[in-house]
Design a protein that fits this description.
The protein has 100 residues and is mainly α. It is 81% helix and 0% strand. α1 packs antiparallel against α2 (28-52) and α2 packs antiparallel against α3 (57-87). It is elongated and about 55 Å long. The relative contact order is 0.13.
């Protein structure tokens, strides 16, 4: 039988993968994808705990995280398009250089 520990382990692994993506990536688009992986890992943990404790609070919290993530993606992708049009790249190293 799959218990709460199994879901929390999967959630922890996904969060670790997302955290490594945030730390190691140099592309802004991949940085957004990594944060989405981290948010989905939190959603899995909240929904699993909510199911096993027969409480809807975790599932409601996960629903609000999905709504916030959707708005973050909409605004973030709009900003990424503007940055790409202005600079021609999404590489963080190229964007961090000071131009005077």
């Amino acid at each position: 039988m799959i218990g709460l520990n199994h879901y929390l382990i999967v959630s922890g692994l996904l969060f670790s993968i997302g955290l490594m993506g945030v730390i190691r990536r140099k592309n802004l688009l991949m940085l957004f994808f990594s944060t989405e992986i981290m948010l989905n890992a939190a959603n899995i943990a909240f929904a699993a705990a909510s199911y096993f404790y027969n409480d809807l609070a975790g599932q409601m919290f996960a629903f609000f995280i999905v709504a916030i993530a959707a708005s973050e993606v909409a605004v973030g992708l709009g900003l990424l398009i503007l940055i790409y049009k202005k600079n021609g790249t999404l590489d963080l190293d190229d964007l961090a250089t000071m131009k005077g």
